[in-house]
């Protein structure tokens, strides 16, 4: 009985307090700064999903991860404890995500108006029912784009945005969207065929589109869909003031049904998560030693979080590794807060923010050879490169020194960018992988010419095979810029060879 009481006091009750506090905090934060004041310059997909998905990990890592250790979880150590952390994060994230749909829709009433021009006067409103309106279908402006999605970019999504002007209303547009999903693993020929079929079918459907078949209109907020319609309008209005444009999309359901069952599911999902956590807390026994250490405020002996934070410390042992990791993370956050899609930004978006392409570089924009090294095509792209960068640079920093490692990283990245534009005529190339492959070219040279001691060379060969080999193999299957990979790998190997010829003994001494 004492064990159950201890589990409640030290693990379960703190989980409930932290969970309820996190859910309330984010909803109040979102409602106040975004919905009420409109001063949160973040896209809806970030506010509705990605921030709620990531936010719970902060209180878990700060307050709850140490408490979980008092449970004697079988299958030792980190895998079992991570499962508990993941369950806690899910129990918080799901109700937060559901609640965003509710507060976003419930915070606005339906405005009955007689003319579409009145929408411009109701700047803080979202939903409108218009008594009478006309749309100039012949003046519609199209924009087509594509995005990948799925765990490994398995899906390819085509989007056609048609911005149609309302008669008698400036800067107010009727938005019509068509989309098609297909596998991203099919051949390029099949993709092109599906693309043409999608456009023809959409254009045919639009010819008979019923603009009056609408229950009410929703004003689009800051989102990828709004960006698509704005791009359509910009095709013929290059000096457009984007903020003044109002995009209205038709809704065919009954306004009173827009919330569905989201409100009860906020509580229902949290209740399910809380019950699952209760069972998970009650099943294992208490680790008496961990409990004693916890109550005496002793730090964890094995703490992965501290290891990660130390790796990101630019004043720590691996300064160059930390600086390069932080630069890539910082540039990605800037991209996201600038409005790029966190999962799959389009080539056009990547080019605008500094991506690498032959035409722009050959016309004097040489800075793209450098800037593209710190731009990534989505969260998964960044995550994989951070792993490769962390592993590769940590094997080289003690051998080369921090300053030399950063210089070589930049040189290899620029040479990889040059290889990319030499090989590809019209491909937008981004990512740190060219520079990272430069580091693996160095590791290859140091392994082949026995700079690393014998006990390390098995590990370096395995790392080269798992990261560099597998990445190159996937590159041959499509969707990855292997020209940059080979350019970086070869340049790194050559630089490594030069260093070995000029300073082999010192390198061997550093490596040992």
TrEMBL record:
Gene3D superfamilies for this protein: Rhomboid-like
Its membrane topology: Multi-pass membrane protein
Pfam families for the chain: Rhomboid
Peptidase S54 rhomboid domain: residues covered: 364-500
Domain of life: Bacteria
GO cellular component: membrane
Any GO molecular function: serine-type endopeptidase activity
Family: Belongs to the peptidase S54 family.
TM segment ranges: 12-29, 49-68, 80-98, 263-283, 322-343, 366-391, 403-424, 430-452, 459-477, 483-502
PANTHER family linked: PRESENILIN-ASSOCIATED RHOMBOID-LIKE PROTEIN, MITOCHONDRIAL, RHOMBOID PROTEASE
Localization in the cell: Membrane
Keywords of the record: Hydrolase, Membrane, Protease, Transmembrane, Transmembrane helix
Protein name: Rhomboid protease GluP
Single Gene Ontology BP annotation: proteolysis
Coiled-coil ranges (or none): none
